[in-house]
Design goal:
By secondary structure, this protein is of the alpha+beta class. The chain has one domain (about 30-205): Orthogonal Bundle (Transferase(Phosphotransferase), domain 1). It is about 35% helix and about 15% strand. The strands form 4 sheets. Strands 3-5-6 form a 3-stranded antiparallel β-sheet. Strands 1-2 form a two-stranded antiparallel ribbon. Strands 4-7 form a two-stranded antiparallel sheet. Strand 5 and strand 6 form a beta hairpin. Helix 2 runs antiparallel to helix 4 (about 130-145). The protein is globular. About 35% of the residues are buried. The model has no long low-confidence stretch (mean pLDDT about 90).
């Protein structure tokens, strides 16, 4: 994580070993996207949601293409997106991250790690890890921003499984968070819905880069 340096990744200030290994990150006064989106009584305005989506995409692109070595985060989720005081998103928690050598197309891992609701089908079935597994998780994150729903609700229903029939039938109004009403930019909303749909494709080949 010490090699990671981007406005949309968490800033590492230091570390400690007394009483266990821990990292010290720059303070995020608003907390995580998960707490703001799912645990706050206040409505999250569309401009903030869109800013978080764009910033997170930039941070993820940096990890995949802009670092000295390709980094697959493996745990992109709302709880791992910290927010600065001006709502700039910062990807954090690199505990599951893997370096992917340039000559390798993917990694295969045997240990099951990650967060249900965000895990790509190829990882669940074959343990395959590459950029597209992060892209799938990012698509779930976009769906959370669009719908206001959790990746897994309290009945353990998957947001992706709930949203896919609506995406397929283009039932946009049923996807959008009711708290937003009509207070959003239609062009931005359509772009985000399209991006989410492409990111959560069953086949990794069909997902966005």
């Amino acid at each position: 994580m010490a090699h990671v340096n981007h406005p949309n990744t968490a800033k590492l200030i230091g570390y400690g070993v007394e009483g266990g290994m821990y990292l010290v990150l720059e303070f995020s006064p608003i907390g995580s996207l998960a707490s703001m989106l799912h645990n706050s009584r206040e409505k999250v305005e569309w401009d903030i949601r869109y800013k978080v989506a764009v910033g997170t995409a930039k941070g993820l692109l940096y990890l995949h293409e802009g670092c000295q070595r390709r980094i697959i985060h493996r745990d992109i989720k709302a709880a791992n997106i910290l927010l600065t005081e001006d709502f700039e998103p910062q990807i954090c928690d690199f505990g599951l991250a893997k370096w992917l050598p340039d000559r390798w197309t993917h990694l295969t891992v045997s240990k099951f790690e990650g967060t249900f609701g965000y895990l790509a089908p190829e990882f669940l079935m074959h343990g395959i890890v590459d950029e597209k597994t992060d892209v799938f998780a990012f698509g779930v994150l976009l769906l959370e921003l669009i719908t206001g729903r959790r990746a897994l609700d309290y009945s353990q229903q998957s947001l992706v499984m709930w949203a896919k029939p609506l995406l397929k039938k283009n039932k946009i109004s049923e996807l959008i968070d009711p708290l937003l009403a009509e207070a959003y930019n239609p062009m931005q909303m359509n772009l985000m819905i399209l991006a989410a749909s492409l990111c959560v494709q069953q086949s990794s080949i069909k997902r966005l880069e």
